[in-house]
Structure formats: C-alpha cells, structure tokens
Amino acid sequence: MNSAKLLNDQGQPQAVPLSERVHWIGALDPNLRTFDIILKTANGTTYNAYVIRGSSGVAIIDTVKEGFSADFFTRFESVADYSEIRVIVLNHLEPDHTGALPELMRRAPQAQLFISQKAQSMLKGLLKQNELRFTPVLTGDSVSLGDRSLQFLHTPYLHWPDTQCTYAPEEGILFSGDVFGCHFCDSRLFNDRVGDFRFSFEYYYAHIMRPFKEYVLRALELIQPLPLRLIAPTHGPILRDRPEHYIQRYHQLSIPALHSELSAHQKTLLIFYISSYGNTRRMAEAIYQGALQVEDVRVSLYDLEGGEVAPFVDLIEEADGMILGTPTINGDAVKPIWDLLSSLTVVNLKSKLGGVFGSYGWTGEGVRLVEDRLRGLKLRVPIPGLRVKLIPTDDEILECRAFGLELAQELMGIRENKQVNLADLS
User: Fold this and answer.
1) Which of 22, 28, 96 is nearest to 60 (CA)?
2) 153 phi, psi to nearest 5 deg
3) Which domain holds residue 285?
4) How far apart are the first and last CA of the chain?
C-alpha cells in the first residue's frame, strides 16, 4: 500500500504505526509556504510527534504546532489513554513542537516532562508557566517504560541550544528532533513511499544545520554507533529505508571539502572587491601581491562584479580569512558587498580573519561600516581598514602591499607588532 492510512473509516485522524509499539501522532501542514520567515516550503511541512508503549506506560515524544493540536490529540486517543502517559519528552522547544504541550499536561497531569539541561529557562520563557514539573537530562540519562526505555543524547545547537535526540534501543528508533528533518509534506509519511524530497533535505540542512557543522559532527559521534532501524525526525519523511544513508550525508555535508586539498600547515585567504573606476581594484591587486609573499598562504582574488554571490559563500565557509574591498558611494559600502555579507548568516565565521579596504571620494564611511559588520559576524579584524582617497599613489600602493602582507602574516601567526618597511615591498 502506497499511502499511510491517516484517517479511520469515519474520516477521523488516526495514529500510523512505525512498529507494534510506536506510532506517529503528528499533523500535516501542506499549505505552509514560509517557515521562520527565511525558509521556503514549496509543499508545506509536517509536525511529527510520536507515542511509544512500554509494559508500564506510554511516552509521548514531542508535540505539534498549536493550531494542529486537534489532529495530534485525536491520533493519540486512537492508540492510548491519557491516564497511561508516564513520560513526555521534548527534544526541542520551538513552538511548532510545543504548541500542544500545555493542554497535553492538563489532560495528563501525572506525566513527567523530560527536557535537556539547556531547555530549562527556555521552557518557562516560551510557555510562561512557573508550575511545570520537569526533569532536565543529559547524554547517558534514561527513563524506563518497563520493557521499553528511552535514552537521551545531548546534541546542542541543532539548531537551538536546547536540542537533544532520544533513542529507543529496544525499537532501534532515533527520535532525532530537527536533525535529519526537512520541510516536506507528503501523506505517505515514509521515505520509501513519499515523492522525491532530496532537494528539501539538502535545503533544510543548508539553512538550519549548516551554521552549526561543528555541533553536527559532535552529534554524529553519538549517533553513528547506535543500531538503527529507523530515524523519526520532527519534520518531513520518517526515514525507515536505509537510515544510515542520511547519517552519512550529514557527515559529508559537515566535513570541509577544501581540507583534502591543503596540507596541514597551509591557510587560505580570499580577497573580494568591487570597483567603480578601477581604484579599489588597484588596491586589491596590490594587497593580493603583498599577501602572496607569505609562504603557505593560498591567496585568491575575486571581482564581485564578475560573479554571483551565492557560490562565494561556500568558499568563505572553508577559508581561514577574507578581505573585502569596497568604494564608498553615498556614504555607504556598495550593494554587492552587503549582498555577500547578508548571505553569510548561514555559515559559521567565528574567529576567521577579516580585513577591509577601499577607495573613496568624499568621506569613506564604507570601510568602517563593513569592518563593524565583520566584527558582528564574529570575525577577527586585527588591522584597521585601509582607505585611499580617489586614485592611489605609488606610496599608497606600497601601503596596500604592506596591508596584504601583514594580514597574511597574522593569518599564519607570524606577524610582529611593528610597521612593515615599505622599501622592502617596492
């Protein structure tokens, strides 16, 4: 049968079995077109929630967005009674997973709520309730349901500080929260039945998980050793066919490809510029020549006028440093520079080296504004930006070479706190 049976013979929502003891009790939102402002959802999303039965009671793993609570409760009621609930687990506290929680706890006041250690303050802030009883957990903690159990994995920043995964060892099921999820709505539910969701899976990773690749790799160290029959995320298809494939894909997406092309002691430095009349370009070329003098620094020079911004994001993510060159027009840096900077919110730039330069005609605010933005993105900007009024002189070209040299030395950790002798660069 191709379709999951989401409704009973009376047309009411019903639970969908993942195994004899585990059921999906989530909801479909096929008409959603934008999620969290920034993500486009071409065919909607799902809010996945689950119930697992043990010999001493049942546990609910996550809930749904508040407006879809009716489907969630009706599906739960098709397989269990509220008096049986012993455990409620929230892997992540975003409202699309906690919307039904207040009413659920009203219906099952005996249930114990389990959340991650980092979720405690968030829970009170989101639900504005001080009387909630909860147990904070970390990796290694577990809870028993008799002949079934739940083990908790601390997986922070995937994609909030509070996120965790929950593993049911007797079932071989990982309730992964947002990890391995995507915004893809298909009533057939399972990855071996739904339409082609590869684009949605990759798009979700790029916009949600990509800034936290370091944490993805840490989480995979916990997840990869687990015997897995199925991965049950909070959005998108349930991954019952080759779940290990999606773990491998996350690993591939999280490992920098450039590292395989560099030796251990090499660093990469990117120089991007755009130039109105060729003055900022001349500065860029001189900075490039200065940086080339430092051994083991791989320097690349790019004119933003000659390419789309999006491909450069991948380069910047894997580079060790970047230098931006912009003229100042109407008291600001130019639009291609801001377009590039606004695209970098999806990658982790913390502690990368940054530098700014540019030619100007009047007051030259563009360089300072871009410097402030780089600092806001957590880059190191150790050398004040270099500004040249209108056409650079020969001496100013030497200053540009010195600027590039110093930044490259800083990148390699060999820069001394002294002025470069310009005579050496002529």
Assistant:
1) 22
2) -120, 125
3) 260-425
4) 76
- Are 345 and 285 in contact, with CB atoms under 8 Å apart? no
Q: Report the CATH number that the domain containing residue 401 is assigned in CATH.
A: 3.40.50.360
Helices and strands per DSSP (H, E), number in the chain: 12, 23
- Sequence-distant (6+) residues with CB within 8 A of 85 are 57, 58, 59, 60, 108, 110, 111
Q: Which residue has the tokens 């903690």?
A: 141
Quick one: which of 102, 114, 32, 113 has its CA closest to 73? 102
Return the CATH number at 36: 3.60.15.10
Q: Under DSSP, is residue 34 helix (H, G, I), strand (E, B) or coil?
A: strand
Q: What is the 3-state secondary structure (H, E, C) of 53-98?
A: EECCEEEEECCCCHHHHHHHHHHHHCCCCHHHEEEEECCCCCHHHH
- According to DSSP, the β-strands at 22-24 and 50-54 are antiparallel
Q: Does 360 reside within a domain?
A: yes
What is the C-alpha separation between 242 and 247, in angstroms, rounded? 10
Domain count across the chain: 2
Q: Does one domain contain both 118 and 164?
A: yes
**End residue of a domain, out of 236, 255, 274:** 255
The verdict on 157 and 276 lying in the same domain is: no
Q: Retrieve residue 371's tokens.
A: 């410097």
**Among the three residues 255, 277, 311, which one is the final residue of a domain in this structure?**
255
65 and 203 part of one domain: yes
In this structure, are 241 and 369 located in the same domain?
no
4 lies in some domain: no
Q: Does 2 score more than 60 pLDDT?
A: no
Condensed to tens digits (0 to 9), the pLDDT of residues 248-279 reads: 999 999 987 766 566 778 999 999 999 999 99
Alpha carbons within 13 A on the beta-carbon side of 322: 26
Element (H, E) at 134: strand 134-137
SS (H, E, C) 335-387: HHHHHHHHHHHHCCCCCCEEEEEEEECCCCHHHHHHHHHHHHCCCECCCCCEE
Phi, psi of 283 (to 5 degrees): -60, -45
Give the integer Cα–Cα distance in Å for 181 and 177.
Answer: 8
Give the H or E element holding residue 47: strand 45-47
**pLDDT, tens digit, for every residue of 196-216?**
999 999 999 999 999 899 999
